[in-house]
Specification:
mainly alpha, 21 helices, 2 strands
């Protein structure tokens, strides 16, 4: 049964991590094949689970294990694949598998690649475990595993002032993790449960003090906002993304950061009485983050740093949908809440594909032409046509161009935001529409500027010998591009069941 295999999506990477550590010298870069096969196993499990859940065969798969039992309390941990966690975990597995293959080629001359892929698999299992967790402490443990593994990867295989940047990343994310832990401890003390799916029932039984719940949720949100790099808790991200090894930057941006948004839906939305107090704050911070990230992206010459600021802006998009959903839930408009929240979760998937393509292109440019400076590039479309197509699809996904997955996700986010705003008054609705237009225009601006400068115009003399990258380097990007286009044409494969699952979650929290 699939529920019995869910634990192996965490156990297998842990075992493989030890194997690649032991085979560091004998296999070298080819340890990446082990990482790929482990991710492929997870793709199979979550692919089957997602298909069966979305086809209506089952509602969800869940496996619970006793963790610790005392005379007063029984702590348990478990894994749950449902209409929300399953496609998120599937996305993580697909992106991780493709980036592992890409890394074999890109970092073929790097040392200690067995250790690299050992940490890579710990990073992977942390993200998968986080997505499937049914217990708050379990969620925190997997969060910590992913943070420590990613810190070590940046510290050892990064560039520039890698130790300083890795330390800054670690301190910021650990501070956020401690805020989240404070919320967990307070939840256990006040709500009397650590089980995620018991929270709504326990709150309903309490007749709770809303002020205490708001304090709990605020602590959790600070932790999640740090991980999403929401303004003003964003300053760790640009340097980290620039100095981290390119495959890890791609994995951080495409898979890890957005998991904090998943946690908001899965955990924070369960504290229903608090949503009316935090919704507006979420929306305001989302708007600032969207515009701040996009404006800063426009001023960058380093292509990797431009994408880093773009990632900040895109997290703002996701938070906008969640803020709108929180507002709609607080006034009982469940139908509007699911539009924004579903759009945000689908944007996690769309952004994962689009941003992974673009960050992996940084490695392609560095390897093929020796620079990632936009001002030193030009006319590469004729010399690297497949790379050019990948760049178009990656940026088109972020821009929300029709027939890409980003179009569907952004349409749902803005529809949810504007529809929810209309319930607060016509002026607020108009303001949300203006913000949507401004944010989208800025995204188009930095994307089209990058395309124009890198792919067209006159080729600098030093790039006359530029040529297309090997297929082994481009193949993972091509797969992601095809997935983005496929989900743009057939979004209901994911959106319908994500919407139903979020609706079910919201219904369970209703008083």
């Amino acid at each position: 049964m699939i529920e019995n295999l869910l634990a192996y999506t965490v156990i297998l990477p842990a075992v493989a991590s030890l194997i690649t550590l032991g085979l560091n010298k004998p296999l070298g870069k080819w340890n990446g094949i082990i990482a790929f096969l482990v991710s492929l196993f997870s793709i199979g499990i979550f692919g089957i689970a997602t298909f069966k859940i979305f086809s209506g065969t089952v509602s969800y798969y869940e496996k619970i294990y006793d963790w610790m039992i005392t005379s007063n309390i029984a702590l348990k941990f478990g894994f749950r694949a449902d209409g929300l966690s399953s496609p998120i975990a599937l996305t993580i597995a697909i992106v991780s598998a493709l980036i592992a293959l890409y890394t074999i080629k890109l970092m073929r001359d790097s040392e200690n690649m067995g250790i690299f892929f050992s940490l890579y698999q710990l990073f992977f299992l942390g993200m998968i475990g986080l997505a499937l967790s049914t217990n708050l402490i379990e969620f925190f443990v997997f969060f910590e595993i992913s943070v420590v593994a990613s810190w070590a990867l940046i510290n050892e295989w990064g560039s520039g002032e890698k130790e300083k940047v890795a330390l800054k990343y670690f301190l910021f994310t650990e501070a956020g993790a401690l805020c989240f832990l404070a919320g967990i401890v307070a939840t256990n003390g006040y709500v009397q449960t650590l089980e995620i799916y018991e929270i709504p029932t326990k709150i309903a039984q309490l007749q709770p003090d809303v002020g205490i719940l708001v304090a709990i949720v605020s602590a959790m949100l600070i932790g999640f906002f740090v991980k999403m790099a929401i303004f003003p808790l964003h300053s760790w991200l640009p340097d980290t993304y620039v100095e981290a090894p390119t495959p890890i930057t791609a994995l951080l941006s495409s898979a890890m950061s957005g998991l904090a948004a998943y946690a908001i839906v899965r955990i924070v939305f369960l504290y229903t009485p608090t949503l009316q107090y935090i919704a507006v704050v979420m929306i305001v911070l989302a708007v600032i983050t969207m515009i701040y990230g996009a404006v800063n992206a426009l001023g960058q010459d380093d292509f990797k740093r431009l994408l880093a600021y773009s990632s900040i802006s895109q997290m703002g998009y996701i938070l906008l949908g969640l803020g709108a959903a929180a507002f709609a839930i607080s006034i009982g408009a469940s139908n509007l809440a699911t539009i924004g929240a579903t759009g945000s979760m689908f944007h996690y998937i769309a952004h994962a594909m689009g941003k992974a393509i673009l960050f992996l292109l940084v490695g392609v440019f560095t390897l093929q032409i020796g620079t990632r400076s936009i001002s030193q590039m030009g006319g590469l479309a004729s010399k690297m046509p497949f790379t050019a197509v990948m760049m178009f699809i990656g940026f088109f996904t972020l821009m929300g161009v029709p027939f890409t997955s980003g179009f569907i996700s952004e349409w749902m986010i803005f529809t949810g935001a504007i529809s929810s705003a209309s319930l607060a008054g016509e002026a607020f609705k108009i303001l949300m529409a203006l913000i949507a237009i401004i944010a989208t225009a800025l995204t188009f601006a930095y994307a089209l500027w990058s395309i124009r400068k890198i792919l067209f115009g006159q080729t600098p003399p030093q790039l006359n010998g530029a040529k297309e990258a090997a297929l082994s380097l481009l193949a993972p990007l091509i797969v992601m591009a095809l997935l983005s286009l496929f989900l743009g044409l057939y979004p209901t494969i994911f959106t319908k069941e994500i919407n139903n699952t979020i609706l079910s979650l919201i219904s369970s929290t209703a008083p």
